[in-house]
Amino acid sequence: MLEGIFSGLSTAVMPINLLMVAVGCFAGTFIGMLPGLGPITAIALMIPITYGFDPSTGLILMAGVYYGAIFGGSTSSILINAPGVAGTVATAFDGYPMAQKGQAGKALAIAAYSSFSGGTIAAIFLLVAAPVLASVSLSFQSGDYFALMVLGLTAVSAFAGKGQVLKAITMTLFGIMLSTIGTDPAAGVARFTFGNMDLIDGISFLLLAMSTFALSEALLSILRPTKDTRTDEERALKNLGSMKLSKEEVKTMIPVIGRSSVLGFFTGVLPGAGATIASFLAYGMERNIASAKEKLQFGKGSIRGLAAPETANNAACSGSFVPLLTLGIPGSGTTAVMMGALISYGVQPGPRLFVEQPEVFWSVIISMYIGNIVLLVLNLPLIPYISRLLALPQQLLVPFVLFFSLIGVYLVTFNAFDIHMMVIAAAIAIGLRLLNYPMAPMLLGFILGSMMEENLRRALMISDGSLAFLWERPITLVILLLSALFLSAPLVGNLRQWVKNRKAVPNDGEF
Amino acid sequence: MSINRDKFGALLFLCLALIYGFYVDDIPLLFGDEDAPFNAQTLPNALAWILGVVSFIQLVIPANQEAGNLSAAFRGLKWGRVVQLAVLMVFYGFTIRYLGFLISTTIFLVGGFAVLGERRIKVLLGASIPVVFIFWYLLTQLMGIYLAPGDIFEMLG
After folding, report:
1. What is the pLDDT of residues A480-493, one digit of tens each?
2. Which of A46, A211, A316, B108 is in Cβ range 3.0-4.6 Å of A422 for a Cys bridge?
3. CA separation (Å) from B136 to A115, A386, A406, B133?
């Protein structure tokens, strides 16, 4: 393991990789600050740039973008109460009131220190947990992998939020359906290609990610114009105030950071949970354990209320790498895009990655530390300068986003059909977004669909067509039971609510 | 009459499940695969059924009033510019091979800026031409990606 760590360290500190972490953090912060564009778009837009790089460098750049985008989202949350990313919504609860009190600089500093600490502590957890899990998962069989993928997909749906569970399940199924288009890898027969040769290889993951996120988000910003917040952001940045923290404030933050890092990391490891749930959980936990006097401060600029979600969302970002790197199963839309990129570099994430390409495995983990340092040392002081880029007017920004998305996909195949396909996919994505369908479960379904089919096929072949592989091994059974639990919990909750409502109606009618 | 937004979505996906399921039988099977425990039709068949059941459940359960009406979800949207940008993207797809990267991308960017309301010639050209050239230089000279000149230049000799 030590050998692997040193190999990863030597890869991560190569000048090109250090440069990529810095570039990634800057680019991510900029995109994260833009209204309407999230980390998935930020990472997807970077993929074409990484084609010429080796896998470690590419993944390091994307990890930097991921952190940067979350940090950029926090900046918008604190300064103008407009979170660019769902994971930073809870940051605005106390960050924005602080900024309104003229302490924007202090709020940004607390966010940066908390993000740095959360990310660093979680990266240490990752350093310990990932190799252990990777070695355990080496003994996994096809049936276990099938069960794990079912768990990943059901968890994503279960954590989708109130009223969204069925929609998330629908989108996951839609994603798996899209993955069946093209040649069946085992039988070699064409499925749903309708005689079109351009569909023989199936739909590319990059095409789907770019059109459903980058293209559709850019077009939606035109379709449903929201208030352009960039001038407000620029104005707020001119009156930052001091970024220094007092000893008292640091003392208050330390235990919060410790608790929220652990909570954030483990929430991030869970497939589907991610940074958003982690930040809300950490905020709720801090408010619950606070004294009655401190509780009153929550929502009015509490340091604890700002430090907790910021620590947790960054820790969750690191945590979400655990299933990706060790099991080859992405737990979120963002890590799904990273996995798509890795596969396009010819690297298969999973337990074998730890054995076969330790330099990729370890350099990503090491670069997380470096990314956190870059965010703290370079991004925080440079925030006012990065924000100047926001002055780029929307009528110039949107065509650039469209161009980078289209050309990124075109450069893979040099097939103009892909550009037309992207327009169709973006139009469908816009329609589905307007109907309030979440896009991330579809991407996960798409990327896991073919792997799930392959593992199910193999497991069935080995067991001679018997479904007994589902319960013969305790681990498979436990994972499947967990999936059933995840799936049934929100459905049972909805059913109970429905029964309660039905009972309430006749009573109401009596009056 | 306006349908609930969630119900409309469920109806769409129910139709998709039916159409997808209808075409599953068109997937050719290898000789002897019909009786195999898992063949090329197994997963698509299962998916069609599961999606059908999930959408049906969503259709029959009580409507989520928070979702609102379909017409409300599509009201007040600025379709004009989005449709123009979509046409521009389709046009870009048609021209990138014929006119080559440099010309087609410049046309695309200038068109995009113009659709979104930019009218100053200096900005239209100043924001597109240098970016296109820098990007072309990065791709061809630094990253070693070959970008063929447009077919039109070959035709012109």
Report:
1. 998 888 888 777 77
2. A211
3. 37, 25, 15, 5
pLDDT value at position A64? 85
CB contact under 8 A, A51 and B145: yes
CA distance to partner chain B, nearest, from residue A421 (Å): 9
- Structural domain contains residue A105: yes
Nearest CA in chain B to A191: B27
Alpha-carbon torsion (A194, A200, A205, A208), positive or negative: negative
Q: Give the best residue of A184, A434, A446, A464 to mutate against chain B (max B CB count within 10 A).
A: A184
pLDDT beyond 90 at A227:
no
A160 touches chain B (CB under 8 A): no
Rama region for A289: left / alpha / beta (φ>0; ψ in -120 to 50; rest): alpha
**Is A169 inside any structural domain?**
yes
Q: Which of B58, B84, B89, B97 to mutate to test the interface with A (most CBs of A within 10 A)?
A: B89
CA angle A346–A352–A353, rounded 5-degree value? 55
CB contact under 8 A, A419 and B57: no
Tell me whether 0.90 is exceeded by the ipTM.
yes
The reply to whether residue A222 touches residue B81, judged by beta carbons under 8 angstroms, is yes
Q: Determine the 3-state secondary structure of A13 from DSSP.
A: coil
| Å between B73 CA and nearest CA of chain A | 6
Residue A406: list chain B partners with CB under 8 A: 89, 92-93
Alpha-carbon distances of A511 from A411, A499, A504, A508, B80, rounded to whole Å: 68, 20, 12, 6, 52
Looking at the 3D structure of chain A, how many domains does it have?
1
Enclosing domain of residue A320: 2-136+146-392+400-503
Structure tokens, B121: 């010639």
Higher-scoring residue by pLDDT: A239, A420: A420
CA distances from B22 to A187, B18, B123 (A): 20, 6, 52
Q: Out of A307-311, A321-325, A379-383, B26-30, which region has the weakest mean confidence (pLDDT)?
A: A379-383
Quick: pLDDT tens for A312-368: 988 888 888 888 888 888 877 788 888 888 887 778 787 777 777 777 778 777 777
Residue A190 — φ and ψ, nearest 5°? -80, 140
The tens digit of pLDDT for each residue in A77-99 reads 888 777 767 778 888 889 888 88
Residue B69 backbone dihedrals phi, psi, to 5 degrees: -85, 160
- Tell me if A509 is assigned to some domain: no
pLDDT above 90: percentage of residues in chain A: 16
Domain boundaries, chain B: 5-73, 79-156
For residue A182, give the DSSP letter: E
Partner B, chain A 365-394, Cβ-Cβ below 8 Å: 393-394
Determine the residue of chain A that is closest to B58 in CA distance: A166
- What pLDDT digit, counting tens, does each position of B108-130 carry? 999 999 999 988 999 999 999 99
- Residue from the list A163, A219, A224 with its beta carbon closest to the beta carbon of B66: A163
Bridge partners (DSSP) listed for residue A190:
A183
- Give the residues across from B4 on adjacent strands: B69
